[in-house]
Structures are given as structure tokens and as C-alpha cells.
Design brief:
heterotrimer, A alpha+beta, B alpha+beta, C alpha+beta, B: alpha+beta, 2 domains, 30% helix, C: alpha+beta, 5-stranded antiparallel beta sheet, 3-stranded parallel beta sheet, 13 helices
Chain lengths: 733, 187, 318
């Protein structure tokens, strides 16, 4: 199916099941502990041994020697593979930066340097600790983003976007601010650490039962890393215990399990120990963001500059904090520039809403500061600078209702009753503040395929290598197919995550829901055509599918009667035409937050949150709501507690566990209200929906930060806003 | 992560006893006798030996709560307890609370309120939710209990504090709270 | 985790004797910190002596009107005990501010006192740490180190780790005494004030316990009344170690006791500071922090401790 023009009225506009709050289809399995995650696949391969990884104890340098004698002699050990046993294996894909294994070169702390395979987990772990490693560490390597920024900030770079004469417009602006914001690196901290069961067969085929968001990428990456035919690789990942970008790409668990299995001649399973995850895998890079805004006397932005600097391994792409600033607000002149500070911290790569999550932490605080400079209501300031066209590209938004998000949000939140003088509202021990922020996140879509199999009993099985990482794919795909085929959702079974299934979009970049449901729809359209043919019609469009029947004119045929001899299989994929790129397809939100700041200690506690989202058709209000409230929780963490602590001399993320890297807990999260605007975006896809998985995070931290300022009068420009950054400005005791 | 500078080779001191033990657990009502490496945690005994994988390993260090199950009626982190220390104990796991066809009211409430997303922390959340309601009924105070001498109220604040040892990175907290309140009020 | 042998013991003196007799043996009770550290090979016992069967799990009155808390009393049971809630509320408050519900169900009284620091450099065996490996250095004080949550007072050039317990801070304010049994069967009583040692040049030596010596109980003197509070300050609302905590017992006449957590290698209290309580937080904290040697990153704790105490005093005055 080619999606080459904006969707017209179609079956999804009179939905019976799409758009309904259908309970999550995988719920009963997950809540009763029966959904099998990667490390739990006892049944898929006989004789599984256990692997355990060893990580480098230095951040940069070379390994001189590895003594594995004691480890090999340890009880139960069946195989050991060290990084010195081979040349560096190819980097798995263009989207990876560091090597996952092989060779004597160390690129970052806890880079995998050995795997020990033993009969039990206890034996493998103990033996791993017996390996002795000699290093030659590089002295004087750079690990400090702030120091690197100081060195590079005055060196001119070619801007990514330069529209008009920013410098002159800024110099002549009636009002202006020039501020620098810092975000620290963050960790995805998904609850299930990376894990893989690997098994080779006698023909050199490998199967990997793993936890991954992007099955097709994983399959290709394995083939590239092991320099083997891609058709010899199978990847299976039906349940994923959270990803947030940390499982977009294969990581060392896949490689170590496969190497270990090959060496031991038996299947091997390996899970990353939690203290290994943060440095071995990827993180969201830290950023330093200089933002300049100039306005005219009425608050119209005449000049906007956003310059972002982030850390990356050499050759990587860091965190582009500036993207949203190209498109979000009307600006007569623009200057957008990025700098990469190359250093040997672990690999920076995508984390939920890469770019915007960090960029809006800067931009939305700057917008708040500019509004204050102007003496304007920050909601009004944003409204004044709303636009239906991206100032950077000149392209129109396909559908943009940001102003409604702001105005409806302000009304619902009671914005008019907010504290308007920073530091002036106190209830007992608590200073009360209110903050607002806008959110912007593109809503891309990508080719996605599916297969539908109409069974003799009238049920349908859907197969696609799409993943459900908690996003609700099982449920919304079932809804889409039930809607397209006019069936009960109970009669639709969705199977995901197996590379033997048609290639889908996978889960990432909030493109999964839009793409994979459109792909399922494409397959259903093919099936409808085949059903039409079977009942003697050439044109499926003239048929009606409802209540488990197909109706042609006056003749109604139950689907159970269509394939009595065996299943009918139809497969297709959706391809999104280039017309979609003529518009800006994006999602928007406004977030409103109330915080209390303890006047004695500076502890910040969020008291209530409201998000108003504009994301086209909401396919399932239950799962979409969960995506958004979950994003809001992550935003609270980003604002207040999440910080990868970098030892800037050793190049180590030192707080590498869940005790020291503080993500929000139950007690941190207050009442959360979410409103979805009732909008449709026909340019986005056949279902007229857009992504919400990343939108829910965007802007939240900025709203919290602005509320903290409003409560205290202290403007902390380095996230997370912990109490030590507020103490000096709190009321005297 | 283990490594290097601190590691001494091998264990050169003879151990005064065997490194494996026999332990008898009553798991979800069924007696199971296991011969385990002394190092085996209760969590790994459940997941690897008994293949009851509903109890999850999120951190293996008591920092996430995904491994929460019941020992003799009390919730514990099964990752920080050795199987050999539970000889004769009664263990209840998420599998013992209900099945997909016959869910415990809390399991059903989690589905109804979408109190999970990826599902990995969910068994631990449900076990903790069950324990939270029991601990409230038993009058055990919490960090947010105002009057230590009165019975703690069944309030959102109390539930959230008592559930805080179970991290949900998907951020389903608000829905989990609704699910727990729903079941609490039904009782 | 290294292989180890395991036994259960039946009586306290026998347990102590066994620990003295077997090389590299350790007691295990709740296990919530020991197993955590064994998995990382920070603790490497060859033999575990399971003391859970010793029966030291009762809370009973003492002749002088105080309480004797068996070493195996779990944190939840201690916090929920009617006598503790009524007569020693600072202790209930401190216990409930620590860890999580499921950890408190396992963690014991004695084990809580013996838990080791959460310094991230202690927890990473590739990092220099004098506490873990004497003489290797203190990575937490090296240039570029992350020390925001570490100690500011009572620390040394060798170590700036804090003691992580909340319970111990309240017990320190309550003048608790630790009761032990030695391998030879003798018993002794160690005031909690003397139980934890400052690091000096030997941060690996953390307590006054001798080899094999087993904690059997903690005793609290007769109730002292007054307004009691435990104020714990942390980044997230729950399930986190203290940046600063304040155990306060304040009598109607303004006198009382103050102990601090999160700032030092042991619960931090001194008599001179207690005497200054009527003068307010500033005076008390000047005394408690007089020898502070903070890092650039954790200097804020000095101000935070003063403000936290001021908050607690304000609440006490009602």
C-alpha cells in the first residue's frame, strides 16, 4: 500500500473498536507473570549454559594481557572468550559508535572484554572475577563536557540553520536574553536489563531470543558483526521489559551470548548485570545549550539562536538539543548550531525523544525567562509566537493545535490563579510555584509490513516483527485489524517480534504506532481483496466487513465460510510517499505543573501535573494515556533527580546502579491529568494518528523547572534541579 | 562490575563444609526440594531451578523491587536472600496469586487500570500492592503516617509511600495507585 | 560471588565461637547488604554462619525501664512495636524513613548497624578505595570525583564515606547500647557512641567489634519523652539514602539531643552541641560541624544540616 496522498474519509472514521479504551491485550499474561522475557526462554533451546560479561576497568587505552588460567580452572566453566582472542569485530551498524567486542583497544569504561560460559550463573559470575587484566591506560584523555565546552565555545562553527541576520536582529531587539543551560547525561534505566539466549545450529544459523526494539536492525547488525549471511540470523523478541532507546540496537549481550554459544558448542544465555548496564550500553549525552532570544516590544520573537554542545565518542552524533528550536516558534531570524565534544565517555545514543527531551529543557526555560523579561504571561508569550509554518524550513505543519493545548490547558489548570510573583506564595513550610512549558516532537512514519492469516474458524492471526515495549502495539494492532476486517477483537491474535515475520517499522522515534498499524491495515486491505475474489468480486471496496461477515450487495457471508479448506494468507506493507515530507508532521503539547519547595531544605515535590496533547487520532486512549503519564514521570526525573555522575578524571559513570541513579518512585508522582485534543491528521497516515510515546516526555522537565523558579525565585539553569542548587536563595531561617 | 585490581586468584583456603545444600521450599502450596549452590538466591532458585520466571530480576541488588515475592506471608526482595536460608519456608510468587484465566483481584485491577506498560516490574508491583494493603490493615506505620498511635489511613499518600520500593520506569505509578485503591475500596 | 560453605547455628556463644574458629567466616541474618556486597566481591567470606535461628528476635523491657531489642528483630517489627511507637517515636520515624517495605521486612537490628557505606567508589571494585582495599587510595577525593553525597565531617584523607543507616542515627540520639557476645562466651555492652569508628588512617576498621564477636541486642534507656522527630532530606521522596538527616529529641525546657545522618562515617552527635540546643540550630551546627572538611561538591551539606535542624526545631516548638 502506498500512502501517497492525504487520507480521505475511510473506515477508521466510523470506528467501532479503534479509538476505544480496549484493555491491553497482553495484560493477563504480564500481570500473572506468564509473559516470557528474553532471559526466561527456558523452553526454546535445550542445554542452555550461562554467560557472564567482564567489562573494562579503564575508559581509554589498551589491554596488554589477560590471564584466564584461574577462570578456566574454576568449577563449571565451559568456555571463555576474551577480546584478545580476535580482531575488533565490525561495528554492528552505522548507528553504533563503539565496537561491541574484539581487539585490544578500550574505547570506554565497562566495554565488554570477555565472556565466561559456565554451567550455572553462580559459576560463571565467580569465574569472571578471576580473570586478571593488565591495561595501558591513556593519560590525559578528556571526559569533561563543561571543560570541553569552555574550550570550544568561542570557535565559530557552520550553523545548521541560518535564517536572516540573527546577530543584527538580536542586537536591535527591544528585549533580549542570553542564557546557558546544562543537562547532565541520563540513563534509560529500563527495568529489564539487556538479555539474550543464543543458539547456533549445525549449518551455522544463529537464533537470538533477546530484548530489542528493532528486529530488522538487530538481524542485520548481527550479520554484520559476525560477518555472516543475514538470512542465517533469526531474532525473536516478543516481550521487551522497557527500552526507551537503550534497546534500539544490539548491544554486547547479543554478541557475548553468541560468541559464548559458539565457543561452548551449546546455547548460552546472558543477562547484563545491572551495574554493567550504564557504562556498557548507551546514554543520553549531556548538553550545554546557549540560547539567545530577542523580541520586539510586543513580545514577537525577532531573533532566536540555539547553540547546542554535547558529548560523544569520536564519530558519534551526541544529542542534538536544537532541533525543536528550528520549528516550534515563529522567529524572524534563526541561528541554529551544534558542536560535538568528542571524548571517551560511554556511547551517547538515542534515549526517548532524543534531541527534544533535552532541547526543550533549555528552550522552555529560556521562553520562561524571556516572558519574565517582557513582563508577559508565559502562556501568552507562547501564544504570540505560535506559527503554522516552520520558520526554518518554510513548510506548513500538516496539523498544529498548539495554541489550543495552551489555552485549554491554562483554563483546566486554573492558570489565572497561579502564583505570579516568584517566591511569594507559601503554605506552611512549602513555597508554591507554577510553571508551564510547550512541547514539540516530530511524528515520523516509516515503511512497515504485516501478514494476516484468516483461519478456517474465522479468526485472524497477525504477524509482524513489530515490537511492544510497553507501548501497546499488541493492542492497537489488534484494534486496527478488527476494525479493518469487521471482527471482534477477541478473534484477532497478534504475534510480534520475530524476524521470521514481515519487516515492520519497529519501535522508536514515536513512529511505531503510526507505521505498524498502517502496515497491518495494508495487509488487511490485501486480505479483503482476496476475500472479495473468493466470493466472486473484483472490487473489495464495494464490500462491507462487519460483525464477522463480509457483505456484497444483499449477500452476507460469514468469514468462517471463506476459508474452510485452510487459511488465507495476505501480506503487504505500507510505504509513506514523499508528499508527507512536504509538510511538517509533528505533535504538540502544553504542560502545566505545580510544585512545592520546602522553604527550609529546598526539597522539591511535584504537587500536580496537567498535559494537553495534540497527536491526531488517539488509537487507544488507555494505552496512549499510559504513554503520556509515563513520559511525564520521566520528565519529573529529568528535572529533579536523574543525573549520570561523571567522574571527569577517570571517564566513569560512577553511579551505575539503581540506588545511585535516582529515577522517580511512587511517592514522587502526584495527580496527573492528561487531555488529548480531538484532532485528526490525514497527512500523517491512513489512520490519521500521530505518535505520543515521546511527546509525553517533551517539555515536562521545563515546566517543572519553571515552577521551581516560580516557587523560589531561584533560577537554576543546570539540571537536575537538586536542592543544593536552591539553598542559597531560600528564605533566611 | 567485578574486576581486576582487587581480585586475588582462586580460593586458597579450604572450606569447612560443602558448597551446595539441600533446601525444601513450599512454593505456591507445593513442596519443592532443591539441591542448590549455596550462592543461589531465592530469586534464582525460583527463576532457574523451578522455572517460575514471573518473579523478575531487574537489578539483583535490592534497588528496584522487581523480585518482590512473599516469604511466610511477608514481602521480601528475593534477590537479597539465599535459597538455603529458606529451608521449610512458604513462598508465594506472582504465579501463585492467579492465572490469566483466573486472576487475583489486584491482577485484574492492574489490567483494568492499565497499571503497567512493559510489564517487567509488574509482578513485583502486584506483590507489593497486596502486601501494602495487608500492612495497612495490620496498622504498621510508614514514613508518611502522621499519628503513630492511630491506625494509618488508607490514603493515596500511604499507598504511594509503601509502594516506593518498586520502581516502574514506564511510569505507570498513577494507574497503579488507581488499581490499588480500587481493590482496597472493594474490600 | 565466591563459593562458600554454610551452616546454621543454635546459640549465640556457639555462633561467636564458630566465627572465631573458621577462617574468613561471616554472620548472615537479613542478608540485604551482605549479599549485595558478596555479588560484587566486595565481601568475600568463605563461610556463612546463619544466625536466624538464634531466637534473638524479641523486644522486651529492661529492669531500668528501657527496652532490649534482640539483634534479629526486623526493622518493620521494631518500627511497628507499640512501645517503640509510643516511647521512642524517633526510632520508628527513622526506621520508616529507610529503605523500602520489603527490605525492612528482612533487615535486622544488628545488621542495620553493620551495613556498609554506599559510597559509589566503594561499590566499584575497579576504583581505588581504602575501605575496600587498604592502601589503594580514596578515589572519591581524587580530582574529577563525584562526592556530592559523601561525608563532610569526621572524615579523613583516607576516606569520606558516610554510614548509611537511619536507624542508627535515632539510636544514637537515644543513647542506645550495643550488647554482644564474644567467642569465649563473655558478653559486653558497647555504647553506640563508641560502636562505630572514625576512618582515620584505617577506614577498613568500621566498628569496635572483635573477631567473632556477635551483636545480640541493642538496649535503649528508659524513655526520655520530649518531642521526637526524624527529618530525612533526600533528592527523591522515598527509597533513597539521606543527603542529611536529623534525629531530634527536644524537651519542653529546650534541652535535648541531636544526631545527624548522611554527613559522617557514623551517627554524628556530641554533648557540647546538645547543650547548645536552646540557642538554636546555628549554634548547634557550628559545634557539630566545627571540624568539617567538605569537598567542593558536598559543602552544601553544612548549610543543609543547619536548615534541616532549624526546620525540626521549628516543628518541635509547634
Amino acid at each position: 500500500m502506498d500512502f501517497n496522498t492525504a487520507a480521505e474519509t475511510n473506515i477508521f472514521d466510523r470506528p467501532k473498536i479503534l479509538g476505544k479504551a480496549v484493555p491491553r491485550r497482553d495484560g493477563p499474561l504480564k500481570t500473572t507473570g506468564r509473559a516470557p522475557y528474553a532471559y526466561e526462554r527456558h523452553d526454546v533451546a535445550e542445554g542452555q549454559l550461562v554467560g557472564y560479561p567482564l567489562g573494562s576497568a579503564i575508559a581509554k587505552g589498551r589491554i596488554l594481557s589477560m590471564d584466564t588460567e584461574a577462570a578456566r580452572a574454576a568449577p563449571g566453566v565451559r568456555a571463555i572468550v576474551t577480546t584478545l582472542d580476535m580482531e575488533a569485530m565490525p561495528v554492528p551498524s552505522e548507528m553504533h559508535t563503539a565496537h561491541l567486542f574484539g581487539g585490544d583497544k578500550v574505547e570506554h569504561y565497562h566495554q565488554a572484554i570477555a565472556v565466561v560460559v559456565a554451567e550455572t550463573f553462580e559459576q560463571a559470575r565467580a569465574a569472571t572475577a578471576l580473570i586478571k587484566v593488565e591495561y595501558d591506560a591513556d593519560e590525559g584523555a578528556e571526559f569533561d563536557l563543561l571543560a570541553a565546552y569552555e574550550k570550544m565555545k568561542d570557535t565559530p562553527v557552520d550553523p545548521e540553520v541560518s535564517k536572516g541576520d540573527f546577530e543584527t536582529a538580536f542586537a536591535n531587539a527591544a528585549h533580549r536574553i542570553d542564557r546557558t543551560y546544562v543537562t547532565t547525561p541520563q540513563n534509560h534505566a529500563q527495568m529489564e536489563p539487556q538479555a539474550t539466549v543464543a543458539a547456533w545450529d549445525e549449518n551455522g544459523n544463529v537464533t537470538l531470543w533477546t530484548s530489542n526494539q528493532m528486529i530488522q536492525w538487530a538481524k542485520k547488525a548481527v550479520a554484520k558483526t559476525f560477518e555472516m549471511d543475514v538470512e542465517k540470523v533469526r531474532v525473536d523478541s516478543p516481550y521487551v521489559g522497557g527500552g526507551f532507546g537503550n534497546k534500539l540496537f544490539i548491544r554486547s549481550d547479543v554478541v557475548l551470548a553468541a560468541l559464548g554459544a559458539k565457543a561452548a558448542g551449546q546455547p548460552v544465555k546472558l543477562a547484563m548485570p545491572r551495574p554493567f548496564v550504564m557504562n556498557n550500553t548507551t546514554h543520553r549525552a549531556g548538553t550545554v545549550q546557549r540560547i539567545r532570544i530577542g523580541t520586539d516590544a510586543q513580545g514577537k520573537i525577532v531573533a532566536l539562536a540555539h547553540e547546542g554542545t554535547s558529548n560523544t565518542l569520536p564519530g558519534g552524533s551526541g544529542e542534538d538539543a536544537t532541533n525543536q528550536s528550528q520549528h516550534f516558534y515563529a522567529a524572524d531570524t534563526l541561528l541554529i548550531a551544534t558542536r560535538l565534544a568528542e571524548m571517551h565517555l560511554p556511547e551517547a545514543n538515542a534515549m526517548r525523544a532524543p534531541g527534544e527531551a533535552s532541547g526543550l529543557m533549555g528552550l522552555e526555560m529560556a521562553m520562561d525567562e524571556m516572558a519574565e523579561e517582557l513582563g508577559m504571561d508565559p502562556v501568552q508569550f507562547r501564544l504570540v509566537n505560535d506559527t503554522d509554518t516552520s520558520p526554518a524550513t518554510g513548510k506548513k505543519f500538516s496539523d498544529r493545535n498548539f495554541a489550543r493545548c495552551l489555552t485549554e490547558g491554562a483554563e483546566r489548570f486554573g492558570w489565572e490563579n497561579r502564583n505570579t510573583t516568584p517566591g511569594s506564595r507559601r503554605e506552611g513550610d512549602w513555597l508554591i510555584g507554577h510553571g508551564v512549558a510547550g512541547a514539540f516532537r516530530p511524528s515520523p512514519a516509516t515503511t512497515s509490513g504485516a501478514r494476516v492469516r484468516l483461519q478456517a474458524d474465522g479468526r485472524i492471526i497477525v504477524e509482524t516483527d513489530m515490537t511492544d515495549i510497553g507501548t501497546g502495539s499488541y493492542t492497537i494492532i489488534a484494534q486496527t485489524v478488527a476494525e479493518a476486517m469487521g471482527m471482534d477483537i477477541e478473534d484477532v491474535e497478534v504475534r510480534l517480534g520475530d524476524s521470521a515475520f514481515p519487516v515492520s517499522s519497529g519501535s522508536g522515534g514515536q513512529f511505531g504506532a503510526v507505521s505498524s498499524t498502517a502496515g497491518a491495515y495494508a495487509a488487511c486491505t490485501a486480505l479483503r481483496r482476496e476475500v472479495a475474489r473468493r466470493i466472486g468480486h473484483n472490487d473489495a471496496d464495494g464490500l462491507s466487513f462487519a460483525r464477522g461477515n463480509v457483505t456484497a450487495g444483499a449477500k452476507e457471508t460469514p468469514l468462517v465460510d471463506i476459508a474452510p479448506e485452510g487459511e488465507i494468507v495476505a501480506e503487504d506493507k505500507v510505504k509513506f510517499g514523499s508528499f508527507r515530507k512536504d509538510r511538517m508532521v509533528a505533535t504538540f503539547a502544553a504542560h502545566f505543573v505545580e510544585v512545592g519547595v520546602n522553604a527550609w531544605t529546598g526539597e522539591v515535590r511535584v504537587r500536580r501535573m496537567l498535559g494537553v496533547c495534540d497527536a491526531g487520532r488517539i488509537m487507544n486512549p488507555t494505552t496512549a494515556l499510559s504513554q503520556v503519564i509515563g513520559g511525564m514521570v520521566m520528565g519529573v526525573g529529568a528535572a529533579l533527580s536523574e543525573e549520570i555522575a561523571v567522574d571527569t578524571a577517570k571517564g566513569v559513570f560512577i553511579n551505575h546502579d539503581l540506588a545511585n541513579y535516582e529515577v522517580p518512585v511512587h511517592a514522587d508522582i502526584p495527580e496527573q491529568e492528561v487531555v488529548f485534543l480531538d484532532t485528526l491528521d490525514p497527512v500523517s497516515g491512513p489512520l490519521k494518528s500521530k505518535g505520543v510515546g515521546e511527546l509525553g516526555l517533551c517539555g515536562v522537565a521545563g515546566a517543572v523547572a519553571n515552577a521551581v523558579y516560580n516557587a523560589t525565585g531561584v533560577r537554576a539553569r543546570e539540571y537536575p534541579i537538586t536542592l543544593d542548587k536552591l539553598l542559597d536563595g531560600l528564605p533566611e531561617v | 562490575m567485578n574486576t581486576h585490581s582487587d581480585m586475588q586468584a582462586g580460593q586458597d583456603t579450604a572450606l569447612p563444609g560443602p558448597t551446595t545444600s539441600k533446601t525444601r521450599l513450599v512454593v505456591n502450596g507445593t513442596e519443592r526440594v532443591l539441591e542448590v549452590d549455596n550462592r543461589t538466591t531465592l530469586l534464582d532458585a525460583l527463576r532457574e531451578h523451578l522455572r517460575l520466571t514471573g518473579t523478575k530480576k531487574g537489578c539483583d541488588h535490592g534497588q528496584c523491587g522487581a523480585c518482590t515475592c512473599f516469604v511466610n506471608g511477608q514481602r521480601v526482595n528475593s534477590c537479597l536472600s539465599l535459597a538455603v536460608m529458606h529451608d521449610g519456608d512458604e513462598i508465594t510468587t506472582i504465579e501463585g496469586l492467579g492465572t490469566p484465566e483466573d486472576m487475583d483481584p489486584l491482577q485484574a485491577a492492574f489490567v483494568a487500570h492499565d497499571g503497567f506498560q512493559c510489564g517487567y516490574c509488574t509482578p513485583g508491583q502486584i506483590c507489593s500492592a497486596k502486601a501494602t494493603l495487608e500492612e495497612l490493615r495490620a496498622g504498621i506505620p510508614s514514613h508518611v503516617t502522621k499519628d503513630l498511635l492511630a491506625n494509618p489511613p488508607l490514603s493515596p499518600e500511604e499507598i504511594k509511600e509503601r509502594m516506593s520500593g518498586n520502581i516502574c520506569r514506564c511510569g505507570a505509578y498513577a494507574n497503579i495507585l488507581e488499581a490499588v485503591l480500587d481493590v482496597a475500596e472493594a474490600r | 560471588m565466591r563459593a562458600f560453605s554454610y551452616e546454621k547455628v543454635k546459640n549465640p556463644a556457639g555462633a561467636a565461637a564458630r566465627a572465631a574458629e573458621v577462617a574468613n567466616a561471616k554472620f548472615v541474618a537479613g542478608g540485604t547488604n551482605l549479599l549485595d556486597l558478596m555479588k560484587l566481591e566486595i565481601e568475600t567470606p568463605l563461610h556463612l554462619i546463619d544466625v536466624n535461628g538464634l531466637g534473638l528476635d524479641r523486644i522486651e523491657g529492661t529492669d531500668d525501664g528501657g527496652l532490649r531489642i534482640g539483634t534479629l528483630v526486623r526493622n518493620t517489627a521494631l518500627a511497628a512495636d507499640e512501645r517503640v511507637k509510643r516511647d521512642y517515636p524517633v526510632l520508628t520515624r527513622a526506621l520508616m524513613a529507610g529503605a523500602s517495605g520489603q527490605l525492612r521486612n528482612k533487615a535486622t537490628t544488628g545488621g542495620n548497624l553493620l551495613q556498609r557505606t554506599r559510597c559509589p567508589y566503594f561499590y566499584d571494585t575497579a576504583m581505588a578505595c581504602n575501605k575496600r582495599k587498604p592502601g589503594s587510595g580514596c578515589a572519591a577525593q581524587a580530582p574529577g570525583a563525584f562526592s556530592r553525597q559523601l561525608g563532610v565531617v569526621g572524615v579523613s584523607e583516607a576516606c569520606i564515606a558516610t554510614h548509611p543507616s537511619d536507624m542508627a542515627v535515632a539510636m544514637r540520639a537515644l543513647d542506645a547500647v550495643v550488647e554482644t557476645v564474644m567467642p569465649e562466651g563473655e558478653t559486653r555492652a558497647i555504647p553506640l557512641a563508641d560502636f562505630h569508628l572514625l576512618p582515620g588512617h584505617t577506614p577498613e576498621v568500621e566498628t569496635a567489634l572483635k573477631p567473632g564477636e556477635l551483636i545480640t541486642a541493642v538496649t535503649l534507656p528508659a524513655p526520655v519523652g520530649g518531642h521526637q522527630s526524624y527529618t530525612k532530606v533526600r533528592d527523591r521522596s522515598s527509597y533513597a539514602f539521606a543527603l542529611v538527616s536529623v534525629a531530634l529529641i527536644r524537651q519542653p525546657d529546650g534541652s535535648g539531643a541531636v544526631a545527624l545522618g548522611g554527613v559522617a562515617p557514623k551517627p554524628w552527635r556530641n554533648a557540647a552541641a546538645d547543650k547548645l540546643l536552646p540557642e538554636g540550630a546555628k549554634a548547634v551546627m557550628a559545634e557539630l560541624m566545627k571540624d568539617a572538611r567538605p569537598t567542593e561538591q558536598n559543602r552544601y551539606k553544612i548549610k543543609l544540616a543547619e536548615r534541616t535542624l532549624a526546620s525540626a526545631l521549628n516543628e518541635a516548638k509547634g
